[in-house]
Amino acid sequence: NWPSGLLIYNNTFVSAGRAFWSDAIWQNTKIKNNLFLGNDNYALKTGTADPRSEMDYNGYYNKPDNQPFITWSADNSKTNLRYDNLYKFAHETGKEKHGIIVDYADFVELKPPKEGYTYNPNSINFMIKPNSKPVNKGVIIPTITNEAQDKNPDIGFWEVGEKPPIFGKVEN
């Protein structure tokens, strides 16, 4: 059973390892407006053979001196192609034509995580800076991002200028 019909919108993934790694078996999937910040050897290691799958308007952190940047398979992991940069990946696969490169400096206060360290969730700030690269670089997704304050939504889970989301029990 292969995952099908995944809708992965407006998330911020931060990892001491790879930010996005998955077997190259997903299909009929839409992955848009996400930030992927890993601190390992690939920014992205996955793929899909399904032409219905869409992957665009995402932001990736490329660790300095990290080559290759992306490993991609379009034949269920029989062949893994390696790309040194986002432009070459977009040109050869048709994915991420509007993708961008981001950095931890694009956030108000976020540092690359360390392997094996447990972080206090209250000490991490995933808000992007008002003039950073992910601002207004997303795509409008009906019923998901149509409340964006500007022309286009920001990439990631937290729109600049919005109040932080509240998770868990809310008391009046």
Q: Which regions have little confidence, pLDDT < 50, spanning 5+ residues?
A: none
Shape: globular
Instruction: Give the SSE string.
Output: EEEEEEEEEEHEEE
| Range of strand content | 15-25%
The helicity comes to under 10%
Strand count: 13
Task: State the strand order across the main sheet.
Answer: 2-5-8-11
Largest sheet: 4 strands, parallel
| Oligomeric form | single chain
Q: How would you describe this protein?
A:
The protein has 172 residues and is mainly β. The chain is built from 1 helix and 13 strands, in the order ββββββββββαβββ. The strands form 4 sheets. It has a 4-stranded parallel β-sheet, with no helix packed on it. It is globular, with a radius of gyration of 16 Å. It starts with 6 loop residues before the first strand and ends in a 44-residue tail after the last strand. 33% of the residues are buried.
